[in-house]
Write a structure and sequence with these properties.
Helix content: 10-25%
Number of domains: 1
Largest sheet: 9 strands, mixed
Shape: globular
Number of helices: 2
CATH superfamily: Nucleoside Triphosphate Pyrophosphohydrolase
Structural class: mainly beta
CATH architecture: Alpha-Beta Complex
Length: about 170
Amino acid sequence: MVLCDSIFENRVLIPIDRLKFRVSAYAVLLQDHKILLLVNRSSGKYAFPGGGVEIHETAQEALKREVYEEAGIEIEILSFLHFKEHFFYYNPLDEAFHSFMLFYLCRPKTLNLKKDELVEDNESQKPRWVSLSILKREDIQSPLREVYDLIIKNYENWSIDGLNIL
């Protein structure tokens, strides 16, 4: 048995043979002291845009595809930011995952977000630029909070090629 975190932030014991291996990539996009987030349909918490890497894709190809599908913008991937290994139970479909989550610091190439009614995703909705000054740690889906902590700790100092990414 493996103890997994559920989407509703409780812990669930799952038999090992039910785990699926999953690699996923997520974008940390900052613009004008705001961060691009989506609302998780099941929990109502914020999440970073991104998702699963398909067997034929690189993580960076998957990230660009996922961000475009969920938020409707094109991105430039600047640098690798963080890795998280996570045991996750997805209650709505009764599925469990051994996840390798890759987080990348990115810059938007376009800024106009997809309209809510055009987001075609089972779990992500409402792409928004959320002000870092009003965002609270508890607003973020639990497995992503350590990345949120990293952002809050460092975002004022982040610079790529001498240009402030904010």
